[in-house]
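Before drawing any conclusions, I looked closely at one protein's amino acid sequence and its backbone structure tokens, quoted below without any editing.
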Amino acid sequence: MRDAPSRRDRQRTYRSPRATWPNRGLAVALIAAAVLLGWWLPHIERHHPLGGLSYDSSAAEATLGAIASGIIALTGFVLTAVTLVIQSVQNASPRLAGLLGFFEHALVLFGALTGTAVYALVVLAQIHQDHVPRLSVTLAIAFVVLSTGATLRTLAGLREVITGGGLARAVGLRLHSVLDGTWEPPATAGAGRDGRDPATLTARRSGVVQDIDGTAIAEVAARYDVHVTCLTAVGSFVEPGAPLLRLAPRPVPEAAAHRMARAVRLGPSRHIDHDPAYGLRLLVDVAIRALSPAVNDPTTAVQALDQIEAVLLRLAARPLGTATVHDREGHVRLIVPRPGWDALLDLALAEILHYGSDSLQVQRRLRALLDTLARAVPPPRAAALTGYRALLDRSAQALADSTRAGTVSVPDRQGLGGPAPGTGPVP
């Protein structure tokens, strides 16, 4: 089995955001180096031509001028983007911007962009009719490519940071690095070299379980004649050292254990591709955000309920809950925990019912949704629907206005304004 993550591994995993970016001195150094290189290299090329792309003087001047102006415009765009990110972070908490140091992180990128523009301008000043520093112009183009790549990578990182989950991860990583540098980890003792059962495979890093490759795990399990139980579910967050898989009746060799552990794929956040429950989570988030007092948009919540109803109808008659994966001979090799009908129904409806308890549209749309599901689900799953119908009835009875209580008791697929149930065409 693999050893527990060492202190050095934990420090590598929980590296401080400030430690992964050079300081502001590097930004100044990049600009200074660009000025020196833009002045020195053309002088060298005047006496020792070094090759590069073929340009005449007019084409080289136009190219360098376009590079300088384009990079200056890109720098302004990046500055605007970083400013918006900082404002978004401050909206979540005014203290986060100072803690995470986003502007400090972006200074190096500003240094690279400014250095590229300054380099192009310095080289441009040294182009003459009888002398075109071909290598210097070629390097300017290469610097544009590198600066653009760095910009795209930074913007992608900033996009991830401004999400609520991204902010939580950034604070967590910073806090973990501080903890590792302040307090020693506890000593471990017990079974195996790391204090855990040697037949339990653990996570080597933190992350959200994005996918479990059951086929790959079943192939290895069949080869060594073991049965595997997955101890975590898709969408769950795990820490380094958290148990992932339990093997029975025996452990497997190190290489096989590594293959199994890699089949549990971790990432920074949940993905809908292998996590249908996350899709429901997103729809519910849309609905409850629309129902917040700051937004107060129950029509959007009803539209989200339309899609939630369609998802639940697709799930109504399907086998849910714990899944099993078989090998080629038909033997069960892997057991994977998955949410059952009751859990998915709670995910889809509980929070919307809670936050929409005083919304006429939401209450009526939920009743229509339950009526639709009642006609589609097998009898064993109908009990959960009965419980939600009782909750809706109690919400209606809690209203002080009896007229309004009667209004919310009517199912309506449009929330408000739809035809009365059971009405047909006028003869």
About this structure: Confidence is low (pLDDT under 50) at residues 1-21, 188-195. The longest strand covers residues 207-212.
